[in-house]
Each structure stands twice: as C-alpha cells, then as structure tokens.
Amino acid sequence: MKFTVMRSDIVQAVQNVSRAVSTKATLPALEGILIKAYDNTLTLTGYDLELGVTTTVEASVSVEGEIVVGAKLFSEIVKKLPEEIVTFETDERMIIYITSGSADYQIVGISSMEYPEIPTFEATDEIKISAGVLRNMIRQTLYAVSDNIAKPIYTGSLFEIKDKEMRIISVDGYRMAIRLENIDSDTDNRFIVPGKMQSEILKLINDDEKEISIIVGQRHVLFNIDTYSVISRLIEGNFLDFRTTVPKTEDTTLVINTRSLINSVERMSLLTSDRVQSPVRFSITQDEIRLSCRTAVGRASDVIPVSTIGKDVEIGFNNRYLLDALKNTECDEVKLILNGSLSPMIVKPIQGDDFIFLVVPMRLNDEA
What are the chain's domains? Predict the structure, then answer.
C-alpha cells in the first residue's frame, strides 16, 4: 500500500476516529485504526466492539491496500510532522513507512485481517434532522444520562419520533431531561441511544446547517454526519414511562431569572464538596426565595425577590443536580413548578414545552 495525503486532512480524521478506539483490549488490533486505501480515498475506522466511527479522506493512492496502525502513536506522529504532504507506505512485513519533509518513521502495523468487522444491519427506518437541532437536543439532555452500569437502560437516552415530533429523554434517578422539536418526518419509532455515542456525535457536528441522517435497525443505529459514520448497538429494554413521571399539578409556580438563580445556588455551593454534602434549602414564599446551606464548614444564605403563585414551600436540592438543569435551559428566564417538598421540581420555558427538566429533591432535616 502506498499513498500521499495532506497532513491537515488526516490529522483531524485520526483524532476523531481515535476516540472510538479501545485503550485496553485483549485483541491488539482494537487499539489501532483500520486504514483502507482504494480509488484515491482513505477510509479510516476506529471500533471498540461497542462504538464505531468511520470517515473518508481524499488521497493520492498509488498502491491500494489496507492495514491497522496503532492509534495513539499514529495520532502523535501525524500531529508533529513538519510538512503538509505526507507519504505513507507499507511492505509485506507489515512495516509502515511515514515520510514528511525531513521526518521519517518506520513503525510496525497489524494485518487488517485481524480487525473485527464493523456490524452491518438492515435499516428499518431513517430520520433526517438538522445538525444544529440535533446538537442542541443532545446537549440539553445528555447531562441526565446515568453512568450507573447496574441499570444499563438509563446509560442511554430514549429517542421518540411520533406525530412529526422528536423527543430525547434522559433519566438517571435523580433528574430527568426531556427535549422536544418538530421535525419533518412521518415515522413512528422509539429507540435507546447510548450516552457514549451521543457524546461522540456532539464532537463531530461542526456545521449546524448540514443535515444528519439517522438510520435505525432492529439492534443498531447509524448516524451519518458529513463525512463521518457513527454506529452503535441500541440499548434494549423498557425505558421509564416519562409521561406519567412528570407531575400534572402545579401547587407552586414562579418565573425567575435563570442567571440570578444559578449565581445564588453557586454561592451556596461554596460550602459543599464531594466529601461535604448538604442540600441547598429553598424557602419559597409569595414574594421571595430564601436559599440557605449548612455544612460542617459553615453556613450561608441568600435571598432572591420573586413573585410566586400558589402555596409556600420548603424544599432542598443537591446543588450539582439543580445547577445542571438550570445551566442547560439556555433561557434568560425559566418557570419553576413545585408540588410540595417531596415531589420533583419542574423546570421549563415560560411558554411551551420545548424542554422539561425534573430535579428530585433531597429530604430536609428540621434544622434550618
């Protein structure tokens, strides 16, 4: 195999596919990038048996072929090459020769025969969506995906497409995030996409105007993003019925400036840490929210004037869970809905239901 490629083109491609490469694999080939050179096109693939990322790069291919190269070393080499033009050549001993200007490398490759095949599947559905819309939907819900592998169903998000609406729902037992957008699709489908895959999709979207194709199968899903294809197994199981989880009543409602509330909660958070945990207490009355926090370190309080409709309530929250929800609203003002001290608080826009975030409260002791 022999080809010439522009360094700037291959650097970006190698960095992106490397994120899907296994760092500790029993099969050495899985720690590498599969490079195929055919028809003046390079196809680069990273795959860890769960997530696969493939992309193409234009190149001048003089001898076609394929090989696996160690991802970490190859990435470091191409980033530091001195010239823009890079020549890549292999011999029958699987030695890879990389040349750029005065720099010359010889590294050991692995036969492509040892690389596992990326899954292929029969498509049962295809959804097209604006890259910018999908990016915002994932970004605003990914924070609520669980990292608890004991309940794998919640390590992903539910994608639900119905009645020309698409929802992404994430839940981890302490908070829930629902994001809604209208899309031009007549399909009716629901599937659970791993959080790891969504993180990679966010990193690959760099043009909000492009269209993304989501190809769904019985057990796999494929996202086509510009020159990249990202494939993963779907998570199987019964996802939480989010419609019955969102409280229907509104005992207490208020509209508040999001940044003011974030700043106040962050001031209370100065007394908490991973080792020192205590809820941020909200005492909500008709004309103010009084925030307080007491830990072994000390105590703090703050007051935000606000107009409230409904009952007074005293409720406590984990500061990090609350801040995650507030920061992902991306709104100047939000509506807060409460139903007593033990029911989840709803955070939503002043108008409409583009997003609905739930934060489960912490039980308060009697000491204020």
Answer: 2-114 (3.10.150.10), 125-243 (3.10.150.10), 247-359 (3.10.150.10)
